[in-house]
Amino acid sequence: MITVTGATGFLGAHLLAALLRRDDRPVCALVRGDPEEARDRLLRAVRSTGSRCEEAAFRRRVTPVPVELTAPRLGLSAAEHSALAWRTQEVWHCAADTSPLGPAAALHRTNVEGTGRVLELLAAGARGTRLFHVSTAFVAGKRREGLVPEDALEERYGFATAYEESKYRAEVRVRRWARDTGRAATVFRPALLVTGRPAEPGEPRHWLAVQAARTRLLGRQDRALVLRAAGPAAEDLSFPYTARLPGRPDALVNLLQVDWAVAAMLRCATREADGVETFHVTHPQDCSVQWLLRLALEPCDWLDVELDPELVPERMRPLERSLMRLAAGLTPHWWSRRRYDRTRLAAATAGLAPPGELTAEYVRAGMTDAACATPSPAGSARADSVRKGAVNARV
Fold it and tell me: Which residue intervals define the domain Thioester reductase (TE) in the entry (predicted)?
């Protein structure tokens, strides 16, 4: 049996769909709340990936088990916990609080203590049970330059967010557990995962899609509201408006198609692990942050953004500060030029076609809700600019 946490999330749903295609083993999904309602959520999440999953077959294969991720024995009785541990052959731990600016205590509780409870489940079962732990490439923290090795796990650079630190500490716990027990573990560090499928209402969405939804709300604001947000300096504004925000104009961020990420992870899972093996699940090419910002701002035909490394908060207008709050989850990437070593990933996925180019059309589609109308003519000049710049958007 395969046990999965976080299966109703964006990555977890794609992973669950792929695991159901991979073989015919039963899957136990650790969930919150009523198991029947959770089963419906799981089915909707799997179908949101494009999988044509037949409901009767899904109900036969997938068993939702209500748990409390941070509670002793996951909130199960001793007998239930033992039975689950001994039936499990693989654990795919995807559950996480991914709030970039969430409270540190809540992030630690879910991401670190929750990982500890999953390790306790593994310890209670057979030694041969495999652990596949989903971390993030951003455990690299505030490191802004150079090539990050796949085995690197250090805190000397500090962390831009409490989320990054919590995922770092969860990885530390996995490594310590593997060392102390002599067990193997596979750690995946995905980049920002994206899709080219517009999301239906209620479906799990990736981080960029959530940010784009906020941007669409901004694009619907009338200019009176924008001027009020600008504060006393509103009389100096003219439209279209170019906002200057702190960051590097040559900053890079790594985006990766979620379908390819899952296929790569399943390839890596076929390897015999010895100790802890870590993979940067990243795209071989990075994206320009400036290009990505302009793409996200297409619904706002009155607004453009330029990143300025010399800008200090004291020189920012109230409107710029509002924009910084709107994009708070992404601002740490506005300073980064680092790259991720993927040598081990490339070796493990030999024979798998490399991920395709991340075009403006693909990223734009994935940031759009299925119910949204096509871009208005007012935004067509911005869209043309993004398309023309796409040739130089990849570095």
Answer: 4-198
Q: Which of 115, 28, 129 is nearest to 74 (CA)?
A: 115
In this structure, what DSSP letter does residue 135 have? -
Give 169-215 pLDDT, tens digit per residue: 999 999 999 999 999 999 999 999 999 888 777 777 777 777 777 76
Distance CA 93, CA 116 (A): 11
Q: Which amino acid is at 112?
A: V
Instruction: Tell me the residue length of the chain.
Output: 395
CB 303 within 8 A of CB 243: yes
Answer whether 345's CB lies under 8 Å from 268's CB.
yes
Assign 360 to helix, strand or coil.
helix
pTM (2 d.p.)? 0.89
Count CB atoms within 10 A of the CB of residue 186: 22
- pLDDT confidence of 21, banded at 50, 70, 90? very high
Superfamily of domain 2-193+254-281: NAD(P)-binding Rossmann-like Domain (3.40.50.720)
Flag the least confident range among 82-86, 101-105, 278-282, 311-315. 311-315
Q: Which two tokens stand for residue 366?
A: 């994935």
Domain spans of the chain, in order of start = 2-193+254-281, 198-252+286-336+356-392
Q: Is 199 exposed, middle or buried (0-12, 13-18, 19+ CB in 10 A)?
A: buried
User: What value does the mean pLDDT take over residues 49-57?
Assistant: 88
User: Bridge partners of 185?
Assistant: 276
CB-based contact 77:85 (threshold 8 Å): no
Residue-level pLDDT at 240: 78
